[in-house]
Amino acid sequence: MILIIYCHPYDQSFNHAELEIIKENLSAAHQKYEIIDLYADQFNPVYSKEELRLYHQGQTTDPLVTKYLKLCQQADTVIFITPYWWNDIPGMLKGFIDKVMKEGEGLSHTVTKIGVKGELTNVKHCYVLTTSTSPTWYIRFFLGNAIKKILINKTLRQLGFRHCYWQNFGGITNSSLERRRKYLTKLYFQHFR
């Protein structure tokens, strides 16, 4: 199953256009997929004291956390669709990772004496699709490349994800309609198997 984790509040955004074209392509290919729409679900990315108290027990007070973790455990492919804000992922997506990725055997990860062991080894492919005001080359070479160096190479790898790829549509603010359309035509379902 393909799991799309979508993180944008505005349904007229380019991220939303990416979501729509990916849904169309997956449906046309008869690929089964589920969507986590963090804003539409009104997911609360903020820990409460009670929620944090339950963290090391692998428990939660939030039914969305339980639902989301179960979807992550069932997925063989995960597609993140998110903007790149202030040199990183939005707080909503960071809160998703903080709250949903529960410590404990059979959950998302376990902590050993030598580090974190990922339990989500069912995720064989992961795609992180971002949009940014900055050009992609500027993110890579001058802003520290946080998506690749931290989110993909550290966080997702620690969770057990394998074969992770990052694709960014940079310079979104001043991009032409033609450039946006051309980019969307490249988001075919074959990339997401």
UniProtKB/TrEMBL annotation:
SUPFAM superfamilies recorded: Flavoproteins
Pfam families: Flavodoxin_2
Keyword annotations from UniProtKB, A to Z: Oxidoreductase
Top-level taxon in the UniProt lineage: Bacteria
Domain Flavodoxin-like fold: 2-172
InterPro entries assigned: Flavodoxin_fold, Flavoprotein-like_sf, NAD(P)H_dehydrogenase_qn
Repeat keyword on record: no
Tagged with keyword Oxidoreductase: yes
UniProt similarity note: Belongs to the NAD(P)H dehydrogenase (quinone) family.
Cited PANTHER family: NAD P H OXIDOREDUCTASE-RELATED, NAD(P)H DEHYDROGENASE [QUINONE] 1 ISOFORM 1
Protein name: NAD(P)H dehydrogenase
Native organism: Lactobacillus melliventris
